[in-house]
Amino acid sequence: MSKYLVVFAQAHQEFRVPELESVAQLYNFKISLSDEPEERDPSRPFMIIELESENHVRLLARRCILIKSIYEFYGRGSTYEELHLRNRAKRHMWERYIPETSFKFIVAAYNHKIPQHRQKEVVESFAYMGFMGKIDMKTPEITLGCFEEYATRNGHTRERHEGDGDFLQVYFGRLIEEGTARPLVQLFDVKKRSYFGNTSMEAEISLLMANQTLACSGKLIYDPFMGTGSMAYPVAYFGAQVMGSDIDGRQMRGRQTTPGVFRAASQYGVASRIIDICTFDVTNNPWRCGGLFDAIVTDPPCKYFTLFTDGVRAGAKRLGRKKELDADRLALYHEHRMNPKPDDSPYIPPTRPYELSDLAVDLVLLARYLLKPGGRLVFFLPTVTDQYEEVDIYTMLCDGMEVIANSLQDFGSWGRRLVTIRKVTSELYPPPDFSIRDSEGEDETQRVPAHRHFREKYFQGFKKAEEVEAENLSHLP
Length: 477
Prior knowledge:
The structure is a single chain. This protein is of the alpha/beta class and 477 residues long. It contains 15 helices and 20 strands. The protein has helices at residues 16-26, 54-63, 80-89, 91-94, 116-124, 184-187, 203-212, 232-237, 249-253, 260-267, 327-338, 356-370, 391-394, 454-459, 465-474; strands at 2-8, 32-33, 46-51, 67-77, 103-109, 142-149, 152-153, 156-157, 169-178, 220-223, 241-246, 274-279, 293-298, 304-305, 310-311, 317-319, 351-353, 371-384, 401-410, 414-423. The strands form 5 sheets. A 7-stranded mixed beta sheet has the order 2-3-1-4-9-6-5. The chain has a 7-stranded mixed beta sheet with strand order 12-11-10-13-18-20-19. The radius of gyration is 26 Å and the shape is elongated. The termini are far apart.
């Protein structure tokens, strides 16, 4: 296997490695990452990986949203003297380009600008390579890249300055492929979409979720909380067929004759891949056989990152009433259902709150039933930063399901985690039971996960978990 240098975009550090591994699995090739924690630190802007061929490099660069470019790796060092020493040892890799190959050098740094006089000094220090071809800054046959890595804290530059040469590492290599998937972020920009809502998922995250599902031609993927369809469009763009549902069909349809989801899908040329959109509660669903879908991808209705600011939207709902009807109102309800008046508005069934931790458990059970063996469930889970522990993700698991990725998008006092769970069993399961859970009967010795009663914690300023839990229990009858 050969070594390659990955140059990442300045976004979503924790999502980088899961995306690399998912795309490698999608195209069925091996990718090797360093066993050293420092070398595979997702907050670092550069990463050295091992692949079997340049074709695999191109597949990664053309599909991974977070890749800016990938280079054939020639060497690195903490000083230029060290880099040149290692680069000379790799002469067999670059000497074939010496005679008459047009070329250009680029000198760059992550989140820093290298002064032009230093760029010139760096380029001249590689004079020993002896390239004889034409210098072509527009259409060179090869591009040689030199990248300086400066100190960061949590993925952010500690001190903004012009690249002064006081770097941690410097990397050098030959460009193989630019990240051609990055422009998809602009293509799927929500603000340019013909149909969207203020809770529509931003384009970059939707594309990352689509990669986690391993979406491609021939696969069938389901979104049980479809809303305005943000996850459906990139999944369909990558070739998959899509089914969607929501408890509130108005979000999917919109106000016009043609459902809004299909209007937006037509904008991206994927309307034919949206099989259907249905209105129902996932806890009262029409699925009568399991093993239907290759993946389930969704953003449960418990939080959002809007077009303009972050916040928490209305909590999830399920069919049912908060309080049982008395005898008189129950009789009136049945009379209305049996003898509706012509001028009556369409019947909208009552709903009640669906607590996030219950929803997460039920979503995993639904996925185990509906997914094919090896299928993936990809969804977002909001958590309170100070209260989160890794075990919280495992409180929602059941037999036959395993967590394969858990990436944080950090908003400070809270964050949302992109969780990927895989079905690891071929056993057929009956439809899950979504019976109402009784909070009073819960084991008080069990840990309360950081996502339980998330909305209440959010709006109450993230009080201590036990205080919020006590307030919730005090309102129970």
